[in-house]
Amino acid sequence: MAYREFPCTSCGAELRFAPGTDALQCPYCGTLNQIEAAPVEGAVDVHEERDYERTRRWLAAQGESLEAEDRPAVQCSDCGAETALPNPEVAGTCSFCGSPVVYRGASTRLIQPQAVLPFKVTQREANAAFRQWVGSRWFAPSALKKDARREVKPDGMYLPYWTYDAQTHTRYRGQRGEWYYVNESYTTTVNGKRVQRTRRVRKTRWYPAGGHVRNTFDDVTVAASETLPRGFLHTLEPWDLGALDAYDDRFLAGFRAEHYTVALDDGFGIATDRMQPAIDATIRRDIGGDEQRILSKDTRYHDVTFKHVLLPLWISAYQFDGKTFRFLVNARTGEVTGDRPYSKVKIAFAVLFAVLVIALIVWLNSAS
Residue 238: how many CB atoms within 10 A of its CB? Predict the structure, then answer.
């Protein structure tokens, strides 16, 4: 594995990619070094979809393993120290002086990333987004909102992703429910007296239903790493994949990056789970009526394609009341998600207030 350096054209120091630009910036003299796209023989189109089944067969023939491997240390050009990045990281910083370290190609895996979504949100903007996010949490402790005013310095990281396209054909069996209304008599107490009233009640008649539906899926994103909780990552979507750039090591300079640890076929299994709500919604529309039940379904996937891309995140953690909480920022949109503590006092007051409101409504109804 080769180690790539990015020296400043003015002073020779190691450069870092500047979010929101198409340039590397020197942390010492401030010089901007433009990233100019250079034609590469045999390069893959940034938006080209790869055939899923063909690639699976190729990977099986190559015998790719996702086990951790021993990687050689590289010598830092700034301080001369030797450093090695922990698996699965392929971009980071020198352990001794903090200079950028990037392995050429940014992956030790057989499938190389074909595209990267460069950082757009700066570290300062990510910190401001975090403070605003904390301030908007209703049940966050008041002390946390005060602590959030302190400057935090999140780490920039490129996370590997698979994106999948697919056509689906689903056969299903279900039931269509149609509403009808009947009058029912009931007895209640008014001013201490038992009286009989009538009310209109909705009921449902169920009829058998069945058929088949088709869906088209484009760029279903699946994180190809288990480093971060998937629930958090889903919250940060959508990604502006239309702004992808062709992969270039220089975009990684100054940031952490990982190679994929979720295999291509495992990623597709996760993608099919993410497709189910859309398929179910299509089935329900096909069944029609006022209510629907899906009793069984059989989905076939065809024309499956994929891309392997790197997407940018700001990641950090904060301490509160002796516990550690993590937060993530989409480095394209500024969307924030993460762990947060809850104020037991605020929750208790909210519950008490809700109970009082319910009691008041019941009292007013009984008095009328």
Answer: 11
List, in sequence order, every residue forming a beta bridge with 50; answer none if it has no partner. 306
Higher pLDDT, 14 or 106: 14
Alpha helices in the chain (DSSP H): 52-62, 123-135, 142-147, 230-235, 264-287, 344-367
Beta-carbon count within 10 A of 361 CB: 10
Assigned token pair, 310 = 């790197």
Q: The tokens of 312 are what?
A: 């940018």
Burial, 138: exposed, middle or buried (Cβ in 10 Å; 0-12, 13-18, 19+)?
exposed
Average pLDDT over residues 244-248: 91
Nearest to 315 by CA among 102, 141, 163, 89: 89
For residue 101, what is the DSSP state? E
Rounded to whole angstroms, how far apart are CA atoms 322 and 206? 55
pLDDT of residue 222: 97
Angle separating helix axes 264-287 and 52-62, nearest 10 degrees = 160
Give the tokens for residue 195: 């009286």
> Are 116 and 160 in contact, with CB atoms under 8 Å apart?
no
Spell out a b/e string for 101-126, using b for 16 or more CB atoms within 10 Å of the CB, else e.
bbbebbbbbebebbbbbbbbbbbebb
Residue entry with tokens 């054909």: 169
Model pLDDT for residues 114-151, shown as the tens digit of each residue: 999 999 999 999 988 887 877 655 555 555 555 555 55
Q: Which helix (H) or strand (E) holds 270?
A: helix 264-287
Angle made by CA atoms 317, 334, 219, in degrees to the nearest 5: 105
Q: Which residues of 143-158 are buried (b: 16+ CB within 10 A; e: fewer)?
A: ebeeebeeebebebbb
Torsion angles phi and psi, residue 44, rounded to 5: -90, 140
Tokens of 330: 């989409």
List the one residue out of 262, 302, 299, 264 whose CA is nearest residue 278: 299
Alpha-carbon distance of 278 to 270, in angstroms, equals: 14
**CA–CA separation, 257 vs 311, rounded Å?**
9
